[in-house]
Amino acid sequence: MSNVVLNVSDVQKSFGGLRALSDINLQIESGKTHAIIGPNGAGKSTLLNVCVGRIIPDSGSVIFDGQVLTGKKPHQINQAGVARVFQTPEIFPDLTLLQNVMVPAFARRDGAFRFNAAIDLRSEAELRDEAEDVLQDLGLHDLRNHLAGSLSRGDKRRLELAMCLIQKPKLLLLDEPTAGMSRHDTNRTIELLQRIKGRGMTKIVIEHDMHVVFSLADRISVLAQGAIIAEGSPDEVRGNPVVQEAYLGGAHL
Ligand code: ADP
Ligand code: MG
Description:
Rossmann fold, six-stranded mixed β-sheet, four-stranded antiparallel β-sheet, 9 helices, 36% helix, globular, binds adenosine-5'-diphosphate
C-alpha cells in the first residue's frame, strides 16, 4: 500500500485477564477515511485510546507520519497533528461555544493550555474569526454566545468536532461522532465530514450507524473480541459472510 501515514503494528492490550486488543495491524493511507466497526466491547475505543496515548499498549507500536507515537504523552501526540472526538463529549460547560472553540486554538499556538500574555489582541481577533468560521461550518454559529453546558447532546458532539477542526489536525479520530444525534444532525455531520475530505486530513471513524459508515469510508476494518476479523472496501466488507455472521448475526449490511 503506498502513501501509508498511520501504521499500527502488532498492538496488544489486556485489562487484567481480558484481552481487549490482540495483534492489531492497521495501515491507513494519507487523506483517506477508515471506518472501524464492530459490536460493543470489541476494542474499538481502546484502539483509538492507544493511538492518542491515553492507553499504553502492552506491546506493539503506532507510527504516524514517520513519528513513533507509542510512549508519547497525549499532548505530545496532539502536537504531532492528531486530534480526537471522544465517545463522551469533553467540552467546557461554563464557557460559551466560541470560547470553547478558541481554547484549542490558543493551545495550538502556545503548545499549552494557558493564556499567554504575549498573544496580542490582533492574534486573538484572528483566532476569533477562525473559531467563528468553524462554528459556521458546523451550523453552530447562531449559538456561539450560549454556554456549552446548555447544548443538546448532539450539539455538544458537533461542538467537540469544531474544537478538533480548529486545530487543523493531520489525523482526526472520531469515536461514534453521530451518537445521540437526530437523523437531521447526523446527515449534517456526514455532509460536513464529506466536505472536509478533500483537505488532506486522514480520518478514522468508529461508528455503529451503517449509513454513516457507508457514506464516509474508503476502507473498513471489522473488529470483534479484540481482533480484526475483516478489512476491505465498503463493498468487500458488506459482502463478507464472516462479517455478517460475527457482527450482524446473519443480517444483511
Ligand atoms: P468498544 O469501544 O468496541 O465498545 P472498548 O474498547 O471500550 O470497546 O472495550 C473493549 C473491552 O475492554 C471491553 O470488554 C471493556 O469492558 C474493556 N475495557 C475498556 N477499557 C477498560 C479499562 N480502562 N479497564 C478495564 N477494562 C476495560
Ligand atoms: Mg467504544
